[in-house]
Amino acid sequence: MSEFPKIWFLRHGETYWNAEKRVQGRKESDLTRKGRMQAEMQSMLMAPVLKDRGIPCLVSPLRRAQQTARIALGGRDYETDPRLAEAMAGVFEGRTLDEIAQSHPDISSANPHALDLFCEAPGGEGFDAFEARIRSVLMSLEQPTVLVAHGLWGQVLRGIICGLGRAEMAALPNEQGCVYVLENGEEFVLRAE
What we know:
9 helices, globular
């Protein structure tokens, strides 16, 4: 396990497609009212951290992460990094989990966790490329950093930092509206009271 700088990881708030149990991947869906409220909770949690103007913030280019960042970072400047985009889920993008179970029953039944389902999608990015992309972000960090991205992206990030295998990464909780603090190979979750 490598040493990485401290990271504050924020998953985007709930989107309309999250609420519909529809696979997003690289496709776009806006935050729901609940998703905007979750980003506001993250803003309260991040306010003390962001008083340090020297902490860089990197955000996925996808609209739901950008919408979250504008709220959660309290208007703070940030950089967009394409490596923070969610896993590409090939033919599954835009489909509900029920639709995937009907059209690809073997893949669906063999991959009950979202991380595995996305990574096994025909025409998708696959786990190895996805993990390599996330590792490249980690290896480029030179100081404590705020990252705003996506659920599966965060599971792999957290798993790499905490020394977990793929199955353990896939089983990690995937909360919205909280902040995952990653430091010294451990994770701590900040939640609003």
